Amino acid sequence: MNHALLKSVIYDQHEFIRDFQIVPRDYEFEENGNYVLVGLRRAGKSTLLYKIVLDLVASGVDWEQIIYINFEDERLSEFTVADFNDLLSVQSEMSDKKGYFFLDEVQNIDGWEKFARRMADAKEHIYITGSNAKMLSREIETTLGGRFFAKHITPYAFGEYLTACEVPHDEPALLGTKTNGKIRAACAQYLQYGGLPESLLYKAKREYISGVYQKVLLGDIITRNSIRNDYAVKILIKKIAESVRSEISYSKLQKTLRAVNVSLAKDTISDYIRYAEDAYLLFHLQNYYANLVEKESYPKFYFSDNGIVSLFLDRKESVQLENMVAVALTRAYPGDVYYLKSAKTGIDIDFYVPSIGLAVQAAYSIAGDAREREVGNLKKLAQNSQGAARLVIVTYEEEETIIEDGVTIEAVPLYKFLLELESGKYGAAY
């Protein structure tokens, strides 16, 4: 690859990073570790790399030691795995000191993992980002061995969102009337528009989020997987959005699609959903009570960011609230969040974290009939299970302690639940 072009790309990136305003995030990195950062497009992976770069420079590292390559730069459209060696050559030309290599959106280059392994074996410092879960598949983990730390980077958690919005959220702020009001107002925005970091820069947030979604859909799902029927994928994602809160089988999705004249085989539907999950657009939860076959056949799907699900379900607050609780719980307890549904006992619980015995219902309000339904389900769980130690109903703004038939249930407003969850108040997973 032309060395002058590579240097131009690197120096342009240096200039960009120098001027970038960093918002602190709740991620820590080992000083001498190599990292692979993965997650939804525009979730903030690159910004975390910028922070690492600036910290290195502040510690005395020269800018000429920083080799930062963004593989979405159109100037690198012809870059292949054979060109990685040129990065080593360019680094030695720029500095006689040890280099620090930052490879952003590296999944665009087939074979990148072999170069990453070689770099780690050579004791080079290397940081990688990507927007595809396949980067952390068993095959890649085997290839990389134990040479890299892996981190899943999500859009802003609520506390990070408040920090970015310069809204204080310590104990005095939570207790103060005016500051608490600002936190609640920010929560309403967060519920509607989610936590994609750059969305905060725009007044037209919906248009920005729509652009990110289109990039994920067209680039990370359709183009990357060579899908010809892009219309079918778009309708499938829309129908999944409309099913948020409900368990749904591939057979049911197939029938739903047929109703709008879209014909897909169940295996194809399964593949398309897997592609969407690989791109971190969607994730699913399984029924803790079900056997293995049912777990795979009747998942509940959620979107990784509320701003994206709101594109399909604008102002459907009850759905948005449940999606947000799902996102927050899976961020706090990855791999340990389920739903509960049993025909035998009649129990129907939105979320269950077995490692800490936390059962959560998501209800925009518990006024009227909703109170009996949500409280009743949690009471059934308490009476039929020894594992549920803490019972919570997350509402939009209602708060109370409910005690019925010897069962204690906490009704907690969304903003408070999110902050308490992030602070570890509900306990740490195994």
From TrEMBL:
Give the AAA domain ranges: 35-162
Q: Which SUPFAM superfamilies match?
A: P-loop containing nucleoside triphosphate hydrolases (SSF52540)
Q: What is the lineage of its organism?
A: Bacteria, Bacillati, Bacillota, Clostridia, Eubacteriales
Span of domain DUF4143: 220-353
Q: Which Pfam families match?
A: AAA_14 (PF13173), DUF4143 (PF13635)
**Protein name (Swiss-Prot/TrEMBL):** Uncharacterized protein
